[in-house]
What does this fold into?
Amino acid sequence: MSSAEPGRRAATIYSVAQRAGVSIATVSRVLQGTTSTSEGTRRKVMQAVEELDYVPLRAARSLAVQRHEAHGLVVPELRGPYYAELLTGYESAAAALGQSVVLVVTGRRDDPTQAVRDLAGRVDGLALSYSTIADPVVQSLARTTPVVLVARPQVPGTDAVVTESTESARALTAHLFGHGRTHLVFVGDPDSSSDVQARYTGFRLAHAAADIPVRRPPLRVPFLEAAGVQVAEEILRRRVKVDGLVCANDELALAVMKRLEGSGVRVPDDIAIVGWDDVMTARYITPGLTTVRQPMRELGQAAADRLHERISGRPARPEPLVLPTDLVLRSSCGCTAKDRATTAAASTPTSPTTTRGAAPPRRNT
It folds into this structure.
């Protein structure tokens, strides 16, 4: 049972050492990341740190200053435009609030949890994106540090900001049904993140509403260009009946599309392909990629604003902030310019070919 309860004194290095059954020098060496201790000893020390919610002394000393005027932002990686937009939005909002941003990338760290615990001692609050650290650790940190979760489900004691995924994925899948496609495959691993799980849920909901069976399990691949090429080669090799791919991001969709076209498969005539994110390439490639636009810059801004509110004393809100996403119709799904104009006129779009929840156009035959 954790000792970080109301009215209890903060844990010290001495209490950690006592709980772990080691010396304070050993605790210090483990926390500094030296390799002179055994793996078994390290596990005992880190278990005691977590059970006691121990904050290192360097963080305790900073309490005399009261505020660092800094946010901690934790992301799994920095590759691609997706994270660039998120970071740009976050940093611009934080700067407007007079806050600096300390960034930690967990993807290649041996101990991401300890890296985030160390960061918590150097900032006023934490914005944690995606599955960078486990929920129990998040709850532990949230007892002593304001925490906002970004693009991941809310846990007790935190705020959360997310983008809408389920309804947009349902509409995107239903749009392909409107083009006469009935043998669809979802490309992406629903277990990789809550976002992808929500997209796959929308994919299944559209099938249920149309009374069309989900004929194949999802192709569980990472969000990488090379994985998209492998998906295309698998389709070419097996020659299975597939007339549409719903890809969990644009990088997969674009890689699949170019590899298939290179082998003589016509998009969208032979197979429709749609993505997610609306990266810049999606609008310039031929055929243009039908996709879902996520407001990543706005997501970063909202996260910074929410964290500043928490740091300033506002309690956590009971529900996450959900930002809307937009279905962007181009040609890779089978839409013609006339289809897109008709759909745009029948909805309230944010751009001539963007719609939120509009009825799908019928495929021209």
